[in-house]
Specification:
single chain, 215 residues, alpha/beta, Beta-carbonic Anhydrase, Chain A, 5-stranded mixed beta sheet, two-stranded antiparallel ribbon, 9 helices, 7 strands, binds zinc ion
Length: 215
C-alpha cells in the first residue's frame, strides 16, 4: 500500500512526510527510474559544460530538509576517491542524492543494507554503481592486492576480474560485480520486478568529468 501511494505521489511531484504529517513538494517531480536517469545525465552535462554545481545547498534548502525530511531521487554507490565528488558530478544539492562510498565502490553487508534502506524507505528510483577511471583500488588489485584490511577490498575486486584484463576492463567488471551484489538482495529484486527501482552501472572520467552509463 505504501509503495503504491508513493509511486502515485511522485508522479505529481508531491510526497507525504511521515514525520511531520504534511504533504510536501518533492525536490524533483520524477516518477520512474528512466526519468531519474535523464535528470542525472542532464546534471552531469551541466557540470561538464560549466565546471560548477548549481545544486541547491542554500540555508533554506538545508532547513527545509531538516524539518520535512529527505526525498532523494537516486542512490549513488561510488568510490571514496577525492576526485569523485558525487553531488557535484550530477549538479545535485542537499537532499537530492543518497550516496554510499567505499574505496573501489565495493558492496558488503553494510553497503547493501544502505542500498535497501534508500530504495525501501527513501524511495530512490535509480541505483547507480559508479566506478571511475584511474581507480587506485582497482589498480592495487591488478598489481597483486593490498594488505591489512585493504586486502578485503582488493580480494573482492579480484574475485570478478578476468585474466590479463586491462585497467579499463577491470573498472567495468568491478562495477558489474557490485551490481550483481545489489541484485542479489531480495528487497531490491522485489522493487525492480515491480518497476519501482532500476540498478545501473556507470563510469566517471576523472579528467573530463563525464559520466558514461553502461548498457
Ligand atoms: Zn577509486
Amino acid at each position: 500500500m505504501k509503495k503504491v501511494f508513493m509511486a502515485f505521489a511522485m508522479t505529481v511531484g508531491m510526497v507525504f512526510c511521515v514525520s511531520c504529517g504534511k504533504t510536501e513538494t518533492a525536490s524533483l517531480p520524477v516518477s520512474t527510474p528512466e526519468e531519474v536517469k535523464t535528470v542525472l545525465i542532464a546534471g552531469n552535462e551541466e557540470y561538464v559544460a560549466n565546471s560548477s554545481n548549481k545544486g541547491d545547498i542554500s540555508k533554506e534548502r538545508r532547513e527545509d530538509t531538516a524539518t520535512n525530511g529527505q526525498f532523494p531521487y537516486a542512490t549513488i554507490i561510488t568510490c571514496s576517491d577525492s576526485r569523485v565528488p558525487a553531488e557535484h558530478i550530477f549538479n545535485a544539492g542537499i537532499g537530492d542524492l543518497f550516496v554510499i562510498r567505499t574505496a573501489g565502490n565495493v558492496i558488503g553487508d553494510y553497503e547493501l543494507g544502505s542500498v535497501e534502506y534508500g530504495a525501501e524507505h527513501l524511495n530512490t528510483k535509480l541505483v547507480v554503481v559508479m566506478g571511475h577511471t584511474g581507480c587506485g583500488a582497482v589498480q592495487a588489485t591488478l598489481e597483486g592486492g593490498g594488505h591489512g584490511n585493504v586486502q578485503a577490498i582488493t580480494d573482492e575486486i579480484a574475485s570478478c576480474l578476468t585474466p590479463d584484463c586491462s585497467a579499463t576492463e577491470a573498472e567495468i567488471l568491478n562495477v558489474k560485480n557490485s551490481i550483481d551484489k545489489i541484485n542479489s538482495s531480495e528487497a531490491i529484486q522485489e522493487l525492480t520486478e515491480e518497476g519501482l527501482v532500476e540498478v545501473v552501472g556507470a563510469i566517471y572520467d576523472i579528467s573530463t568529468g563525464t559520466v558514461t552509463f553502461l548498457d
